[in-house]
Amino acid sequence: MEQVTVLGAGLAGSEAAWQLSKRGVPVRLVEMKPEKMTPAHKSEYFAELVCSNSLRSDELSNAVGLLKAEMRRMGSLIMEAADANRVAAGGALAVDREGFSRTVTERLQARENIEIVRAEAKEIPGGEVIVATGPLSSDAIAAKIAELCPNSDLHFYDAVAPIVTLESVDMSSAFFASRYDKGTADYVNCPMDKDEYLAFVRELCSAREAEVHGFDDGGVFEGCMPVEVMARRGVDTLRYGPLKPVGLKDPRTGRENYAVVQLRRDNVDGTLYNLVGFQTHLTWGEQRRVFSMIPALKEAEFVRYGVMHRNTYLNSPTLLDRYYRLRSEPRISFAGQMTGVEGYVESAASGMLVGIETAARVLGLPPVDFPQETAIGALGLYISGGSVGDFQPMNINFGIITPLGFRVKGKRNKNAEISKRSLDIIESLMNREVFAYEDHR
Q1: Residue 254: how many CB atoms within 10 A of its CB?
Q2: What are the residue boundaries of the structural domains of the chain, listed by start?
Q3: Of 3, 26, 79, 214, which residue has the fewest beta carbons closer than 10 angstroms?
Q4: Which residues pair with 131 in a beta bridge?
Q5: Residue 63 in contact with residue 397, Cβ under 8 Å?
Q6: Rounded Cα gap, residues 347 and 376, in angstroms
Q7: CATH code that applies to domain 4-156+311-436
Q8: What is the per-residue pLDDT for 222?
Q9: 390: how many CB neighbours lie within 10 A of its CB?
Q10: Neighbours of 199 (CB within 10 A)
Q11: What H or E segment, with its residue span, contains residue 102?
C-alpha cells in the first residue's frame, strides 16, 4: 500500500497521521524538532501548544464545543489526549500542555505503521503528501510551498501570553472564581481599582516592544491581539475585553471591581498559571515591569514571558478544494493553521478531515464529503471558497454552518438544535466504508 508522507507533527499533522495509521495506511511523519526549533517552540514533543493551553468552550451551545464533540465521536487523537490531560477551567477545556503533548507523541510512536523522521523537511516529496508544517514553517519548506502557491504570501502576527507561578501570586489581592460562578472556581482573579487600572494602561501604551521585523498593528489577527495593541485602541478597551470585571463578584466586597486580570491554570498540578488575554510582544524587561503593576502580581515569578512570531497562511479559496487538496496538484494536501483555520481545535479538525479523506483515496474508497451541516465540513467548505472578500483566518462559528431552516426561540436553543443535527449527521456518516477500516474503535 502507498505510504503517505506527513510533513509536520503539530496538532494537524499528528491528527492526520493518526487517522491514516488506524486505517492501515503506512505513514512517514517528518518533524524538524528537536533538530531545528523556532523561537516559539520549547519542547521536543509533538502537538506543542505554543500559545494558550485552552481549547476553549466544551459546551454544545458553542460552535467549538460542537466541533470537539464531532471529533470525539470519530476517534480524534487530539481530543483523547486533551481529555486525558484536562485541567480545571470552568466551562472550557484546558490542558496540562506538557502532558498533552507527551500523550500525543507516545501514542504516535507506539504505532507500528508510522515511521517517524526527526529532520527538517526541505522538499515536498513525491506521492501522497500532507503539508502540515504550520504557520512557523522553516524557510526551506516555506520556499517550496511558495513555489506551489505563488499567491500565498499572506501573513499575520501571533502572540504568546506569559506564565507565572501560583505561589508567587499575592492571594490577599486576588480571589478564585469563574465568571458568573459558572462551573467551579478555577480562575485566579486579580482586581484593579480605577487609579491602578489607568496607571497600568498608561504604562502599557508606552512600554518598549521587542523588535519584530515588519510588524505593524494592522497585521495582527484580531483573535490574538497583543494586550498593548488593545490598550492603544482606547483607555477602556481592556475593560471591555480580557480585563472585563462583569460576572466576577469580589468575595471581599460583594461587588464587581473596576477591572480584573484573570489567570488560568496551565498544568495539572496547578502550580503554573497563564495571564488570560495577555498575548504580548513587549520586551521581557518591560513585561516584568508593567505586569507587576497588577497588585496581585507585584512579586510574581514569570517562568515564561510572552513572545511574538509571524504566522503565514495560504490564500486557500484560490488554492485548495474541500478536502484541503491543492487544486493544481491534488496529491498534495495541506492541513492546520496555514490553511486559514484559526485555533487549536480547528487545526486538529482540518488534520482529521484530511487524514480520513486521504485514507479513503489511498484505499480506493468513496470520499466522506463532510457536509456544511457539520462543523468539520463547514470549515473545509469555508477555506475552499466560502469566504467573501479578502480571505482571513476563521475560527469555527455557527455562522458558517448551514442554518436550520426553521425558527427556534433563543440563541442557545437554536445552537443546541444545530449541534444535535450535526451530531446526528456524523453518526450516519460513521456507516461509510472508510470508518469500517479502523483497526480500533
Answers
A1: 7
A2: 4-156+311-436, 163-306
A3: 214
A4: 7, 334
A5: yes
A6: 10
A7: 3.50.50.60
A8: 57
A9: 7
A10: 12
A11: helix 97-109
Cell numbers standing for residue 91: 466551562
Query: What are the residues facing 175 on neighbouring strands?
Result: 189
3-state secondary structure of 307: coil
Nine-digit cell string for 73 = 465521536
**What cell was used for 209?**
516592544
pLDDT tens, 41-76? 778 899 999 878 999 999 999 999 999 999 999 999
Average pLDDT (403-432) is 93
* Residues 6+ positions from 342 with CB-CB distance below 8 Å: 221, 223, 393, 394, 395
Task: Please tell me the CATH code under which domain 163-306 is placed.
Answer: 2.40.30
Q: Is 360 exposed, middle or buried (0-12, 13-18, 19+ CB in 10 A)?
A: buried
pTM recorded for the entire structure: 0.76
Q: Cis omega before residue 34 (within 30°)?
A: yes
Q: What is the pLDDT of residue 177?
A: 93
Per-residue pLDDT tens digits for 313-362: 888 988 999 999 999 999 999 999 999 898 899 999 999 999 999 999 99
